[in-house]
Amino acid sequence: MRTGKDKERKVKQKKRQEESVLEILSINQYDTKNHCYEMASREYAYMDMLRIRTKDRTGMDQEDITFDNISWQRFYLMYTEDIKIIALNFPVDTKVQREYYSRRIAKTKNPVYQKWLNKELAIYNNISVYKTNREFFLMIFAESIKQLNENLAVIDQTLGIGTQGNVDYLSQNEKDILLRILNNKCTMTRRNKE
Fold first, then answer.
1. Distance CA 33, CA 6 (A)
2. CA-CA distance, 92 to 20, in Å (whole number)?
3. Helix (H) / strand (E) containing 140
C-alpha cells in the first residue's frame, strides 16, 4: 500500500529527472570575443577561469613569501565578487622519459649499463603511476562584460596576471578540459597537450 510520502517522493524524482543539462550546468556558450563563458544563470551572466601559479615556498626568500601573502590578502580585501578556488590532481606525465630509456635499453649491449637503465625506467614508471601534481584554478563570475573586465583588473592589480604574477590566463581548450573534468568526475585528469 502506497502512502502520501511515496507519491511525493515519486513526484520529486520525476521533477529532478526533467531538469535539463542547461539548468544544471547553466553554461550557454563560450564567448570567443571576450574569452569567457556566457551563463544561463539568473545570478551571473559570465564566468572565466584562471590558473593559480603555485610556487615552491621552501626554496623562496622570506621577503618573497611575505610579498605573496600580502598580495593574496589584498586580493581578498579588494575583490568583492564571488570566486571559486578549485584544486585538481593531475598525474605526472613521464612518457617522454620512459620512451627515452626504452630506446636506450634496446640499443645498449653493456649489461651493467642496461641494469642501470632498467632501474631508471622502473623509477619513471612508478612516478607515472603514483605521483600527482596538484594544480589550482580560480573561477570568477560577473553580471556583465564590463564587470568581468573590472574583476580581471582587480586580479591583475592585486595578484598580477602573466609571467610575473600569481595567476595565468587559460586557453579555451584548457577551460573546456577543466569544465569537462569538473562536470564528469569519471573523466581522466590527464591534460591534453595543445
1. 50
2. 36
3. strand 132-142
- 193: its cell numbers: 597537450
Nearest to 140 by CA among 78, 42, 49: 49
Q: How far apart are CA 117 and CA 69, in angstroms?
A: 43
Name the average pLDDT for the chain: 84
Whether residue 30 contacts residue 178, with contact meaning beta carbons closer than 8 Å, is answered with: no
Does residue 90 or residue 11 have the better pLDDT? Answer: 90
* pLDDT tens-digit map of 38-51: 887 767 789 999 99
**Total-model pTM:** 0.73
> Contact, 136 vs 54, CB < 8 A?
yes
Amino acid letter, 100: Y
The answer to whether residues 159 and 69 touch, using CB atoms and an 8 Å cutoff, is no
Using CA atoms of 169, 175, 177, 182 in order, give the dihedral in degrees to the nearest 10: 110
d(C-alpha 128, C-alpha 115), whole Å:
20
- C-alpha 30/C-alpha 46 separation (Å) is 10
Residue 117, C-alpha cell as written in the block: 637503465
- Going by C-alpha positions, the residue among 96, 101, 92 that lies closest to residue 126 is 92
d(CA 172, CA 174): 5
62, containing H or E segment: helix 62-78
Point out which residues pair with 30 in neighbouring strands: 37
Distance from C-alpha of 166 to C-alpha of 73, rounded to nearest angstrom:
13
